[in-house]
Amino acid sequence: MGEDGTSKKIQKSRKSRDAEESSGRSGQVPEVAADVFAEQAGSIELLWGGRGRPSRGPKPALSLDRITRTAIALADAGGLAAVSMQRIAGELNFTKMSLYRYVPGKTELVALMIDTAMGEPPALRTDSDWRPALREWADSLSAVLHRHPWLLPAMMGSRVMGPNELGWVESALAALADTGLDGAEKLDAVVVINGHIRTLAQVAASMGVGSTRTKSPEQVMSAALNELLAGRSDRYPALTAAVASAAADDSHDQALEFGLERIFDGLESFMTRRAAQRPEAEPGSVSGTP
Questions:
Q1: Looking at the whole model, is its pTM more than 0.90?
Q2: InterPro entries given for it (predicted)?
Q3: Residues 45 and 51: beta-carbon distance below 8 Å
Q4: How far is C-alpha 256 from the chain's CA centre?
Q5: What is the DSSP annotation of 213-240?
Q6: DSSP 288
Q7: What one-character DSSP code corresponds to residue 101?
Q8: Is the CB of residue 211 less than 8 Å from the CB of residue 223?
Q9: pLDDT one-digit tens code per residue, 235-250
Q10: pLDDT the model gives residue 271
Q11: Domains assigned to the chain
């Protein structure tokens, strides 16, 4: 590479570093993140850069938060299909075009809806063991998905995570801080726990939990299975017996708890093996010295 090419490369590197430092000071997402999510620049701006109101014109009567929460209420009642800029405008007694001064379109609005509906993660006790801390985290996440069944389909596909959603990941990782797991293992553990919670929520939603929110996901699934199995016990004898047994000993609402405890058992066993494999420090030795 010639001198001119090297000079240009150095200048580009300096610009990238300056942009990153500037974005850190202003609270915006670094330029590299904007490059990764180039097609979702509008969502990045609203989620991370912030644009609470239009910069021109008179003092607005609307707010981005009001628009977002109205959209969430519509989605809670009728799913994502019920959310449209026209419908939101009608609910707020504004014109459809007035909403576009705050949010470019539905894609960006859904990104805001997800992060707002997720809310802040639970404040886990710092003096608590990792198991009860993660159990509280899991129960809180399950409750959020139960209150907003539309979140699961909204979260599918490539998208930008917002501050609240990323905060949930941070909270779970912090609970695993003193477990001896490395960074990749902590992330994998959170993915497994998250996957169990979402799977149950997805199954329950497909069986009608969205229209029966007073019931637990397990209650909805149990009722649906009983209805499907009626008169078909000869074809599904094992399933019929299992459902009947669960109902008899009142253990049919423990799918979430059972799965979490087995995941935690596996993690604890792995942590124990990891600790046993760790070489013990020699008496009188100082960490970091040969």
A1: no
A2: Homeodomain-like_sf, HTH-type_TetR-like_transc_reg, HTH_TetR, Repressor_TetR_C, Tet_transcr_reg_TetR-rel_C_sf
A3: yes
A4: 17
A5: TTS-HHHHHHHHHHHHHTT-TTTSHHHH
A6: T
A7: T
A8: no
A9: 999 999 988 888 777 6
A10: 95
A11: 33-117 (1.10.10.60), 119-276 (1.10.357.10)
